[in-house]
Amino acid sequence: MPTAPHDHQLRLLAVQDADLRIQQAQHRRATLPVLAQIDELVQLDRGLEEEAVARGTEVNDLRRAVAKAEDDVQSVRDRAERDRARLASSSTSPKDLQALQADLEILERRTSDLEDVELEVMESLESAEAAQAEVVARRENGVKRLRELEHERDVTFRSIDSEIEEAAQERAAAAEGLDAGLVSLYERLREQHGGVGAAALEGGTCMGCHMSLNPADLRTIDTAPAEQIVRCEECGRILVRKERA
């Protein structure tokens, strides 16, 4: 049967306590609710960034469409202005006057149609710019909230990291000089049993699995030498007998 000085076995409980606190702190660090909130906002920001790009493209296209519509209207107005100037000229023949008057009527209708197009495109642009501004505002608010949550995360991380560092120092002090065979067995069992490789035996109960040992097993444990490493018959963890000296 493996053996280790009883005082080493008692110190192993301090190692186990520190390891458990480190494990719990690491789990708490990895599962902070704020991390899920940050991830959600990061995903939301990516979606808003894509939408903002799409809105920006739409706005730019509509601005070009507005500029073209304005140019088209102005071009027709300029042509109509030239026709009116020719109508006012005394040198224009009656035949040309009749043609110019017909052309002006066509240009007036064309101007009206183009102004309708211009108005429609300008309204579309106004709507697109409002939608773009709304997306930008949403993204800015989201980024602001993201920065707040990241600060909250970092503050909590520092606090937890401090706990881990403190527990790690306590573990190092408790583990210094421990029997190598005892530590090796403990580490193997700790890996197999969710981070708990050693537990105290208190009142006939294993504090690792919280099962009460049967009287026969308790008698065997009680009569075993103090340096003998005993294991829980229920869970297999190292049992540390506190009352043994």
UniProtKB/TrEMBL annotation:
Signal peptide limits: none
InterPro entries to which the protein is assigned, alphabetical: CT398_CC_hairpin, Oxidative_Scav/Glycosyltrans, Zf-RING_7
Entries under Gene3D superfamilies matching the protein: 1.10.287.1490
Chain positions covered by the region annotation Disordered: 74-94
Domain C4-type zinc ribbon positions: 205-239
Domain of life: Bacteria
Record field: compositional bias (Basic and acidic residues): 74-86
Domain called CT398-like coiled coil hairpin: residue spans: 15-194
Protein name: C4-type zinc ribbon domain-containing protein
Organism field: Demequina activiva
